[in-house]
Amino acid sequence: MDPEDCKTMVDVRAGVDEVDRQVVALLARRFGYMDAAARIKPDREAVRDEWRKADVLAKVDAAAEQLGVDRRLMARLYEDLIETSIAHEFEEFDRRRS
Fold it and tell me: 33-49: per-residue pLDDT in tens?
């Protein structure tokens, strides 16, 4: 059900729950790519890539603008997601080489 079609809070909550399931699945896939990066990168210094972080944030900003979503909100969410991803990648990098 689309948000515009919700008539009750039960409808809203069911929609949010479904979106959350999808988001978790997508985040699991995204973190799989972080695991792959930790496996592929040659050294620990390569894990934090500020150019790539800026590139991702720019792409997210463009997508948010195109979709009419609050760009500042997306920037905050993605800043947290990227930093969490980097921390995860460091942990995975270290785990693979210990």
Answer: 999 999 999 999 999 99
Q: Is 79 annotated as a binding residue?
A: no
Rounded to two decimals, the pTM is: 0.92
User: Is there a binding annotation on residue 97?
Assistant: no
Residue 7 labeled ligand binder: no
Instruction: Judge whether 30 is annotated as a binding position.
Output: yes
> DSSP readout, 39-72?
HH-SSGGGT--HHHHHHHHHHHHHHHHHHT--HH
The domain 8-97 is classified under which CATH number: 1.20.59.10, 1.20.1530.20, 1.25.40.10, 3.30.420.40?
1.20.59.10
